[in-house]
């Protein structure tokens, strides 16, 4: 999926649904994605993954 997105010019907001560990959020961080999920544990995991990868979660 990420390879397919690399071949596409993204125009507009990026929405990520249920990113369990934040892998997509990290990979797509440059596009300032919106992430929606129903798990607080997933939110914590995403924040930690962003931190470990040196990505500002507010960026």
UniProtKB/TrEMBL annotation:
Annotated coiled-coil segments of the chain: none
Pfam families in UniProt: RLMG_N
Top EC class for this record: transferase
Keywords in alphabetical order: Methyltransferase, Transferase
EC number: 2.1.1.174
Gene3D superfamilies: Vaccinia Virus protein VP39 (3.40.50.150)
Membrane spanning residue stretches: none
Start and end residues of each RlmG N-terminal domain: 1-58
GO molecular function: 23S rRNA (guanine(1835)-N(2))-methyltransferase activity
InterPro entries with a match to the protein in the record: RlmG_N, SAM-dependent_MTases_sf
Entry protein name: Enzyme
Organism: Escherichia coli
Higher taxonomy: Bacteria, Pseudomonadati, Pseudomonadota, Gammaproteobacteria, Enterobacterales
């Amino acid at each position: 999926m990420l390879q397919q997105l690399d071949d596409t010019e993204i125009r507009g907001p990026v929405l990520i649904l249920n990113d369990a560990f934040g892998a997509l959020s990290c990979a797509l961080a440059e596009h300032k994605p919106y992430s929606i999920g129903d798990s607080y544990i997933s939110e914590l995991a995403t924040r930690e993954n962003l931190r470990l990868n040196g990505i500002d979660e507010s960026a």
